[in-house]
Amino acid sequence: MKLLKYILPIVTLFLVVACQDDDDATVEPPRDFTEQYKADTLAINTYLREHYITVTNAAGYTTDMDVVISKITNPETQTSIWDMPNRQTRMVKVASQNDLEYEVHYLNLRQGIPTNPKPCNFDSVFVSYRGTLLNGSQFDYVQVPSVMFRLETLIRGWGEIIPQFNTGSYTDAGDGTTIFEDFGAGVMFLPSGLGYYNVSQVGIPAYSPIVFSFKLYEIERLDQDNDGIPTYLEDVPNDLGIKDGYITIDDDTDGDGVPDFRDIDDDGDQILTKNELKIPNTDPIQYYTYENAPDCSGNTTNPNRIRKYLDPNCN
Ligand SMILES: [Ca+2]
Ligand SMILES: [Ca+2]
Ligand SMILES: [Ca+2]
Ligand SMILES: [Ca+2]
């Protein structure tokens, strides 16, 4: 087992927070979203064609999955990010924002352990990351994280791309450090509409497309409405009965405009979800979990049942 040799102190300021009362932030009148997206797309695509990436493989070390993105100087030996081979497939995620369908390019350098959880877009994540502009200027870097971040408080791009990855494993090195291995790792290339847009930040001019490399070490499931059902499970299945793991305001069982993950009475029958999850005749009171919550008939095993906290016909 390889050990981490040291931990660098965290001296950087986390700049990903979307809505901050930062005196350094200045606001320009917003440009047209469509026009700006066109400009950002051109800039990002050019960047992807003119740069290549090198990835560090160093299992058990903090440098594992570190990336360096450089301008191509020798096209014979350096493959552009745009033309990267399958192993580090350049992928595209579509994100709806500002009445636009943004296409976000990202690299899946490593998926993580497939049987481990992926965060939903409203969970908390424990990540190391580096943020740069397209000109290479670094505006933020955290090599060893110390706190978890709620994805809902960050720029939109993070909530779109980080949930595409699984966590890895970690062990205590015995010297106060932690060894992270097999974690999900990637790079996202965000148009400004999924970043800070017209709100400039320290080191980030307004309307900057931004690049984040990241490593997903751990997640924490959140329960935003504290009703006993974790947010990632307050995802209304689509027409095919599938939960897609992506929470939106349309995940709204009773259609009252409050999505399930913020609705303390999900089926709108005036009985709080929390109370519908009480297990009868328990003292002190115990609660069903999502997994064993019954439907109106009391069935707790049919995978297709409508759990009674989501069924206004009973409580
Ligand atoms: Ca909940
Ligand atoms: Ca609702
Ligand atoms: Ca709820
Ligand atoms: Ca209810």
Can you describe this structure?
The protein is mainly beta. The chain has a domain at about 35-220: Roll (Chitinase A, domain 3), CATH 3.10.50.40. The protein contains three helices and eleven strands; from the N terminus they run H-E-E-E-E-E-E-E-H-E-E-E-E-H. It has helices at about 35-50, 155-160, 275, and strands spanning about 50-55, 65-70, 90-95, 100-110, 125-135, 140, 150, 170, 180, 185-190, 210-220. The strands form three sheets. Strands 3, 4, 5, 6, 7, 10 and 11 form a seven-stranded antiparallel beta sheet that branches. The protein has a two-stranded antiparallel sheet with strand order 1-2. Strand 8 and strand 9 (about 180) form a beta hairpin. The chain is globular, with a radius of gyration of 22 Å. It starts with about 30 loop residues before the first helix and ends in a 39-residue tail after the last helix. The structure holds calcium ion (CA) (4 copies). One calcium ion binds near residues 225, 227 and 261. One calcium ion (CA) binds near residues 227, 234, 261 and 263.
